[in-house]
């Protein structure tokens, strides 16, 4: 990426991670104890996911050693460095102090959520809507759920609505609804445009199956 492209990207992205005044003051206090403090920026990187939340690494690093495609934003004496691969996941997040005054450290309040199924990749889907959903479940989603002892299967398609149920380790799991909402539903809606709603028919509470009601 050229310098011109980098400048344009920073203009388009603006301030990726919002830093509150209190958080900035805390970081600057910590930085003041480092050698050549003025040269250091706060690097914030998404390192993975834990459940439905991202995990992060925060460190003080020399600003002039950042990668060419890192995003930087300087405000009130603090430069925040966000690696290119973390920009989308951190867009609109806020770095702040914990709400509980007795709790130390910093917190990141992020409206974005990782896909609990990971990267589903590209898959050629053919046939009618039901066949496309079955193929997506079999080839991409269920292999990811298998590591947790679970699976998802299509109950049926009614117009533009797909009814999906989860079983095995997913049934009765507190995370299963989030997995369906954040992962399976998103994957189906993105891969199969003719499906506009995914309905969870899993019998979480021994209730009636909404597909048959």
Could you characterize the architecture of this molecule?
The protein has 213 residues and is of the alpha/beta class. It has two domains: 3-109, Sandwich (Hypothetical Protein Aq_1857, Chain: A); 129-200, 2-Layer Sandwich (GMP Synthetase, Chain A, domain 3), CATH 3.30.300.130. 28% of the residues lie in helices and 29% in strands. The strands form three sheets. It has a four-stranded mixed β-sheet. A three-stranded mixed β-sheet has the order 1-6-7. The protein has a three-stranded mixed β-sheet with strand order 8-9-10. Helix 4 crosses helix 5 (176-191). The N and C termini lie far apart (55 Å).
Gap between N and C termini: 55 Å
Biggest sheet architecture: 4 strands, mixed
**Strand and helix order:** HEHEEEEHEEHEEHE
DSSP strand content: 25-35%
Low-confidence residue ranges = 1-13, 206-213
The CATH top-level class label of the largest domain: Mainly Beta
Number of strand segments: 10
What average pLDDT do the residues reach?
81
- The residue fraction in helices comes out at 25-40%
- Please give the radius of gyration in angstroms: 22 Å
Give the total of domains: 2
The CATH superfamily of the largest domain bears the name HesB-like domain
Give me the side-by-side strand order of the main sheet.
3-2-5-4
Form type: elongated
The CATH topology of the largest domain corresponds to Hypothetical Protein Aq_1857, Chain: A
Structural class: alpha/beta
Q: Count the helices. How many?
A: 5
Gross CATH architecture of the largest domain? Sandwich
